[in-house]
Amino acid sequence: MSRAAGPTKTDRDWAQVQARAAGNTVYFDAWGGDQAVNRYLVWVSDQVRLQFAIRLVQVKVTDIAEAVTRITAEAAAGRRHGGSSDLLWINGANFASLQKAGLLYGPWADRLPNSGLIDTRGNPTTVTDFQIPTRGYELAWGTSRFSLFYDAKAVAHVPRNIAELLAWIRAHPGRFTYPRPPNFLGTSFLKQLLILTVPEHAALARPVAADFKRVTAPVWVWLDAARPFLWRHGRLYPPSGPAQTELLATGEVDWTMSFNPLDMARAIQTGEMPDSIRRMAFAQGTLANSHFLAIPFNSSHVDAALVVANFLISPAAQARKADVSVWGDPTVLDPTRLPKVDGRRAAEPADPSDTGANEPLVPDLDPSWMTALEQEWLRRYGTQ
């Protein structure tokens, strides 16, 4: 059911796309749970109205699965044109579901004028979505990577690998913890441990197989050794990332974690965290993924959606999005290909909480690993 692709990269073709887009409305299904995100999208709406005469409407959803269900229902009802959504903020299982059902327009993402600025080599997560090749049906517009943060006033010697982290935990009882799986961030911590203990990351791109226990054994050995020295002796875990960050803010622990490396920079700027917070990076590789834009198969205004998507990956839009005073969502663009502003690259925000380590990014695992890791964690520690 996928529709043919739209523009090529020639100036003439793109000028025609922009001309057809003018005067149209784009309904953008996007998570509405963060006021910083919502304010950023208001700015985007103003910009595309002024620059391209396009009206952008954010359809705020609590979970993009709501939009996926709606699009699937429209397809079942035979609504091949005039769909309710023109642009989606999407990734992971929701992308897989729509792509498998043929309910996405494309391929189109690599044909936008600004798509050549995306850092596809240094950041492989921009072209795979939980190990599923995007093949031009999604456009990366933001990147996340697993991040451990610590208070430099309490952590004098910063661990650089999981062996050193374990040694620090054992030497400082009660000062480290992680969210309880299946919380997303707690499961991400398990996946990060797996990346650091499996020499061949390619094995993690495949679905879980019969050798799961053998492959994951080092993870459970590490967790068994750490558990008695965790906060509350490993008998209680924070229910979420924000709950753990609150423990750091109140001085109960010395560490927190996030899937956004700029989270603590924003917290420092707002005064929620002291300026002594720093980020720890693993030289062996960091779990990472990107979030994407997609166009439904029955979008009412494809050309306008293409113009909005191209603007969202422009240097100006990406730089503003990465600014921790605005949103603090890391860019997907290659900073070396962008112009310098006051000696710094555009879309390369100052981050007082980042150590500056340039760790390799490892794309998120096949989705089956998430379920298997959560089930095994619950079996081992869920009732303790």
- The outline comes out as globular
The CATH class of the largest domain, by name, is: Alpha Beta
Largest sheet: number of strands, sense, barrel closure: 6 strands, mixed
Q: What would you call the structural class?
A: alpha/beta
Multimeric organization: single chain
The radius of gyration computed from the alpha-carbon positions, rounded to a whole number of angstroms, is 22 Å
Kindly report how far apart the N and C termini lie: 49 Å
When the domains are counted, the total is 2
- Please, what is the CATH homologous superfamily of the largest domain? Periplasmic binding protein-like II
- What percentage of residues falls in helices of 4 or more residues? 25-40%
Percent of residues in beta strands? 15-25%
List the helices and strands in order. Answer: HEHEHEHEEEEHHHHEHEEHHEEEH
Q: Overall pLDDT, averaged?
A: 90
Number of strands: 13
Count of discrete alpha- or pi-helical segments spanning 4 or more residues: 12
Please mark out the parts with pLDDT under 50 across 5 or more consecutive residues, or reply none: none
CATH level 3 topology of the largest domain:
D-Maltodextrin-Binding Protein, domain 2
CATH architecture of the largest domain: 3-Layer(aba) Sandwich
